[in-house]
Design goal:
Growth Hormone, Chain: A; mainly alpha; 18 helices
């Protein structure tokens, strides 16, 4: 490989990694600013929390739009337009004078930023076949995992030295840099002859085709439920660790960082081994391990034995599988749909967010201050993820032999 090709490959990986980080950058950098925004706008916590919910709703809904559009018009133009919308909305957030404006701008910010991860996955499918795509997605996850590891600390520093509006100036700058990377480092990966010519009705029909495809649903549900367990952890672990077990907030960050480090290690290992063992073998292994670890955690929480360590250790073992499951599940789901990779990627992303939101909300209806509701929900997610892989996708030998 020539030096020029190596440079192009590095540029491609960095660009796709940056595009994949819009979600964690937009969420995690912002969290330390919530109390300050509440005070400045003279409003209540529930109203400011809506600014986060608005972002997530925009992020989820937009994926259904960007997928079919990119299958028709290519990847670069929707990326540039979507990120430009994100930049404008970030400016609107930085200049907002009331919480209502902030809620509206955060929805638009989510709608624009969603283009990054959706089309990053589609570009990988355009360029790579199933196992190699899983390897590349693992590398992207490795880069993306650095965002939730660094973003809260960076957001806290920005809040200290620039105020909460500085967070949105930083996010606006991030968007501008991503547009430049798309223009200069990302070639168009969907050739004209491979683009769809569908109207809106045909685009809806494409989603129907995906929803009745057994293997697609298997991959989407196996990875989606495992990821839903992670959403439950993100939503409820502060209450469990800080309120239930009395962990000081500064030490909670250490637990959070350790779990992210475990994900990054497994992402690196998956990128090395997936081309040797295949997507489906790695998925069965990761979902089985996740289901086992989460079940152990739920049993300890149910009987009340082991204290904090009985929750933290199995939880770490569960979360370390996220990179393996997410990258391989995505590669498997998109493998059968090279003609509409954007649509398939979009539906999968929306399903993942929906499963996480629903399961997290259900925990809220039964949460009683103990670790059991969180642990039970994560165990349920792990077991359903494993069942989806086994009964909808099938054994690795059957999939490889079809």
């Amino acid at each position: 490989m020539t030096i020029t090709n190596q440079a192009k490959n590095r540029g491609l990986v960095l660009t796709l990694g940056a595009l994949s980080a819009f979600g964690p950058m937009s969420i995690d950098m912002y969290l330390p600013s919530l109390p300050t925004i509440t005070r400045e706008f003279a409003t209540d916590e529930a109203s400011v929390q809506l600014t986060l919910s608005a972002l997530l709703v925009g992020f989820a809904l937009a994926q259904l739009f960007y997928g079919p559009i990119s299958d028709r018009f290519g990847r670069r133009l929707p990326l540039i337009v979507g990120i430009a919308l994100y930049v404008i909305a970030s400016l609107g957030c930085a200049l907002a004078t009331n919480v209502e404006t902030m809620i509206a701008m955060r929805f638009i910010q989510g709608f624009g930023g969603a283009v990054g991860p959706v089309l990053a996955r589609a570009v990988v499918r355009d360029l790579f076949e199933k196992n190699e795509a899983a390897r590349m997605l693992s590398i992207l996850f490795l880069i993306m995992a650095a965002a939730p590891l660094l973003a809260p600390a960076l957001g806290g520093q920005v809040l200290t030295f620039m105020g909460w509006r500085g967070v949105f100036w930083i996010l606006m700058g991030f968007g501008v840099i991503c547009i430049a990377m798309v223009i200069f480092l990302l070639p168009e990966t969907l050739s004209g002859e491979r683009r769809t010519r569908h109207n809106a009705a045909a685009m809806v029909k494409s989603y129907g085709e995906l929803l009745i495809h057994r293997r697609y649903l298997g991959y989407a549900f196996s990875s989606g439920f495992i990821l839903a367990g992670m959403f439950v952890y993100i939503s409820w672990s502060p209450f469990v660790f800080i309120d239930t077990f009395g962990i000081p907030p500064q030490y909670f960050f250490l637990i959070f960082s350790t779990n992210v480090a475990g994900m990054m290690v497994c992402a690196s290992l998956n990128s090395r081994f997936v081309t040797r063992f295949g997507v489906d073998r790695m998925l069965v292994l990761s979902t089985a391990w996740a289901a086992f670890a989460a079940s152990v955690m739920a049993v300890f929480a149910l009987v009340g034995l082991g204290g904090l360590l009985a929750i933290v250790i199995p939880l770490f073992c569960y979360l370390m599988t996220i990179a393996v499951t997410a990258s391989n599940g995505t590669a498997g789901a998109l493998a059968d749909f090279p003609h509409m990779a954007g649509t398939a990627s979009a539906l999968m992303g929306t399903m993942h967010y929906a499963l996480g939101a629903i399961l997290g909300a259900l925990v809220g209806t039964v949460f009683d201050g103990r670790a059991l509701p969180m642990a039970g929900a994560i165990a349920f997610a792990g077991l359903v993820g494993l069942a989806s892989q086994i009964f909808l996708v099938g054994s690795p030998k059957r999939v490889e032999g079809r």
